[in-house]
């Protein structure tokens, strides 16, 4: 069923969707890794494609930036298009000093400063987590490919430019690995729908150093993450 944000027809979207934040990265993935790729969505410039990877039907859809945008697209994919699995493939900034720029992070759980979970009217604080089968498969794939990775808690923030400098660094004392801006709403939406989700994040920078991925490194490291996601999709 078409929505305000997605013009796909029934059956055009696969049961597994890879979701980068950047719609141009969705286009890159479709053109680089999928065969017979077809664009099913261009609404608001948020590209969506469906094609085949090693014979399996897979879709790739931009999510946009931030918890609300991911929440919209994930909800519609799960509820309107019968998607079973969403794998977020994005970037993050290291909070923990032991996390290296270039590392691949698998988000086992998710902390937040967002009020997004309040909509569920729960009598407490919900702790969003990844689907274990996807997480386990991702770890096995990364180990087999010898990709440097870490598994742990991430911080999904509503804020990119913080008013109180250094505040995000407080999460390090609780072992939180990185900050990003979408996993929270993906995990909440998946839990509410009874569906599967996993966040994969490439570390592009760190609050502890001026080091950041160069353009060449970014391409190589993102490709390693994309291939890992495609293999477990």
What's the CATH class, please? Answer: Alpha Beta
CATH superfamily: Nucleoside phosphorylase domain
Residue share in β-strands:
25-35%
Instruction: Tell me roughly what share of residues is in helical segments.
Output: 25-40%
Looking at CATH, which topology would you report? Answer: Rossmann fold
For the largest beta sheet, what order do the strands appear in spatially? 5-8-7-6-9
Please tell me what the overall shape is: globular
SSE string:
EHEEEHEEHEEHEEH
> How many strands, what sense, and barrel or not for the largest sheet?
5 strands, mixed, barrel
| CATH architecture title | 3-Layer(aba) Sandwich
Mean pLDDT, all residues: 95
Count every helix, treating DSSP H or I runs of 4 or more residues as helices. 5
- Global structural class: alpha/beta
**Rg from Cα:** 17 Å
Q: How many structural domains are formed by the residues?
A: 1
List how many beta strands DSSP finds: 10
How far apart are the termini?
Answer: 23 Å
Quick rundown:
The chain has 233 residues and is α/β, with parallel strands linked by helices. It has one domain (14-230): Rossmann fold (3-Layer(aba) Sandwich).
Structural write-up:
By secondary structure, the protein is α/β, with parallel strands linked by helices. It has a single domain (14-230), classed as Rossmann fold (3-Layer(aba) Sandwich), CATH 3.40.50.1580. Helices cover 29% and strands 29% of the residues. α2 (67-80) runs parallel beside α4 and α3 packs across α5. The protein starts with 15 loop residues before the first strand and ends with a helix.
């Amino acid at each position: 069923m078409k929505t305000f944000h997605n013009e796909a027809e029934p059956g055009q979207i696969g049961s597994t969707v890879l979701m980068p934040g950047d719609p141009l990265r969705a286009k890159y993935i479709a053109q680089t890794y999928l065969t017979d790729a077809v664009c099913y969505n261009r609404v608001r410039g948020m590209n969506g494609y469906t094609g085949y990877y090693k014979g399996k039907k897979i879709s790739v859809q931009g999510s946009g930036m931030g918890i609300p945008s991911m929440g919209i697209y994930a909800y519609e994919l799960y509820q309107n298009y019968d998607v079973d699995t969403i794998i977020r493939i994005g970037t993050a900034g290291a909070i923990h000093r032991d996390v290296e720029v270039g590392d691949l992070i698998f988000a086992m759980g998710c902390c937040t400063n967002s009020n997004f979970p309040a909509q569920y009217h729960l009598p407490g604080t919900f702790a969003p987590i990844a689907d274990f089968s996807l997480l386990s498969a991702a770890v096995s794939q990364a180990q087999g490919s010898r990709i440097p990775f870490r598994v742990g808690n991430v911080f999904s923030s509503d804020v990119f430019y913080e008013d109180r400098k250094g505040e995000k660094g407080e999460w390090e004392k609780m072992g939180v690995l990185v900050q990003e801006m979408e996993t929270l709403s993906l995990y909440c939406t998946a839990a509410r729908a009874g569906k599967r989700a996993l966040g994969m994040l490439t570390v592009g920078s760190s609050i502890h150093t001026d080091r950041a991925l160069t353009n060449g490194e970014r391409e190589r490291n993102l490709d390693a993450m994309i291939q890992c996601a495609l293999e477990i999709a």
